[in-house]
Structures are given as structure tokens and as C-alpha cells.
Amino acid sequence: MEKCALVTGSSSGLGLEISKYLLEAGYTVFGGSRSGTELEHENFYDVELDITSEDSVVEFFETVREFTPTFDLVVNNAGICEMSSISDTTLEQFENHLATNTLGPFLLFKYLESFLIKNETHIISILSTAAHYGYPNVGAYNASKFGQLGLIESLKKEWKEHKIRFTNLFPGAINTPLWDKVGTKFSRDKMLGLTEFMSVFSFIVTAPSTIQFPELTFLHKEGFLE
Ligand SMILES: NC(=O)c1ccc[n+]([C@@H]2O[C@H](COP(=O)([O-])OP(=O)(O)OC[C@H]3O[C@@H](n4cnc5c(N)ncnc54)[C@H](OP(=O)(O)O)[C@@H]3O)[C@@H](O)[C@H]2O)c1
Q1: Ligand 1 centroid distance, CA of 162 (Å)
Q2: pTM for the complete prediction?
């Protein structure tokens, strides 16, 4: 069988672009999202997934297990971002960020272990510069991404025996539909384009498997870190 990849958040933005790229590269791709995608390819499996729901994550893995016992590549990508000051953020908004960006990856990893290939599986997480730096008006997003990073750092140590690779990506702003929903006035000219993001992603995926990239921060040259 061809190499198998799991991509969460495959219905839009980075996840959709990553899925297309991996299909082109010969992977069989299992994409998970709530809304699904119009992407049609004989090696693409569009599987319903609400990463905030344990039942949904369990069902997702039961479905994919009918087609593959293992994953060579896992792209932990699904996420949400809304902007508001801490004073204006509702408890529900904050909880939604934690449920999607922190508990979601927890549920993904909780049920992933039996799909790992010793010495082989590569887990790429799309974090954000917001997992390292605090920005104003994204407190819920910041907290959820810092939390996700802590989860992954702990997991790396727990799964040391598997000798797999973890790559944590910390991109700055990228011009995806995420920003349509956020609705800020940030200039899209100072964001990375999808092509630029994919040039970094493809470099990492195609690098020899003897190389590890524990952390990579990258952003538009006129973007900002703090
Ligand atoms: N765009 C940026 O500037 C930027 C910068 C740094 C990091 N990131 C990170 O990159 C990742 C992708 O962002 P994007 O820009 O591609 O955003 P996007 O276009 O809004 O896509 C987000 C994806 O996440 C999925 N998702 C959201 N909630 C979900 C849930 N409960 N269950 C399953 N899937 C869910 C969405 O699918 P459904 O809605 O169909 O479920 C969608 O496919 C996120 O983790 C984001 O934090 C983005």
C-alpha cells in the first residue's frame, strides 16, 4: 500500500492544501473535518470528524481502521481562532478554543498510538507563533496553543520508545479562510501565502527521515513575532 497520511482540518486552508499536496505526492490521505471537502481523488478519504468530541474521534479511527492499520504521516492541523480582548471574550469562546485547539489534539493523540509505525511515523503539528509569543486580543487562542505545545512536549517523552519524529511548526500569519472569519484589518500582504507555507511543508516532508525538525518558526519577512 502507498504511504498513508492523516490530516485533521482537511476541509479548508492549510489542511486542504496539505491534503492536495500529499495526494499529488502519492500518499493515501484520510482527511477529517466537520464540513467535509469537495476534494475528489481516488486516494482521498473524507471522514467526518469533530475533534472536540470523544465519540466522534473514536468513530473516526474506527472508520479509518477499516482501510489502514497505520499512518506514516499525521498532520495535526485542525484549529480555530477568534479575536477579542480578554474582557470581551465569553467563557464559551474561551472553552471553544480549548476544546478545539488543546483537547482536540489530546483526543487525536489519545487514540492514535496503535496506528504508529516504529521508527517511521512523522507527526507534524501546525501550532503558531502564538504558541510561543503572547499577542493582544487573542488570549483564548494563545492559551490554547501554548497548552497544545505542552501536551506535545509531554507526549514526545512518553512515546520515546516508538522512535518516531515530531515536527512542531510555528508559522506566523498565513492568508487562509481563517482570517475571513476573524475579520481583522491585518494586511494580507504581510501574511505568508499558501504557496510559501507549502514550500516549507514540502521541504520538511521530503527531507530524509534521518533528519528531525523539533521546532520551526517562520513568517513573512514583514510579519511580526511580538
Ligand atoms: N492562517 C493562519 O494565519 C495560521 C497561522 C498559524 C497557525 N495556524 C493554524 O493552522 C491551522 C489551520 O488553520 P487555517 O488557517 O487553515 O484555518 P481554516 O481555513 O479556518 O481551517 C481550519 C480547519 O480546521 C477544521 N476544524 C475546526 N474546528 C474543528 C473541529 N471541531 N473538528 C474538526 N475540524 C475542525 C476546519 O474544518 P471544519 O470547520 O469543516 O470542521 C478547517 O478544516 C490551525 O490550527 C491554525 O491555528 C494558522
Answers
A1: 28
A2: 0.98
